[in-house]
Amino acid sequence: MIDLADVSSVDLVKRQWDTGALNQVWAGDITDLRTWEEWVYLATVIDAHSRRVIGWDNSMAESFFATLKTDS
């Protein structure tokens, strides 16, 4: 388990999200969505200039965390 107190992040773009060109800055997020049967996780990657989703994936809880563990 990662201790969040030990994690530091560097602002590589210095809050300049839109550089005026495609594929310069991407932002990503993972969110959980509750369905009638179980939790589903949605991961997205967005280009900061065009504000379009350039990649996404979704998964049920068990397989999503198994993928994260093996790909890290």
TrEMBL record:
Q: Please name the Pfam families in this protein's record.
A: rve
Any one Gene Ontology MF annotation carried by this entry is: nucleic acid binding
Q: Report the residue ranges that make up the Integrase catalytic domain in this protein.
A: 23-59
Q: Which Gene3D superfamilies match?
A: Ribonuclease H-like superfamily/Ribonuclease H (3.30.420.10)
Enumerate the InterPro entries for this protein.
Answer: Integrase_cat-core (IPR001584), RNaseH-like_sf (IPR012337), RNaseH_sf (IPR036397), Transposase_IS3/IS150/IS904 (IPR050900)
Q: Which residues cross the membrane?
A: none
Name the GO terms of the biological process aspect: DNA integration
Task: State the name under which the record lists this protein.
Answer: Integrase catalytic domain-containing protein
The species this protein belongs to is Subtercola boreus
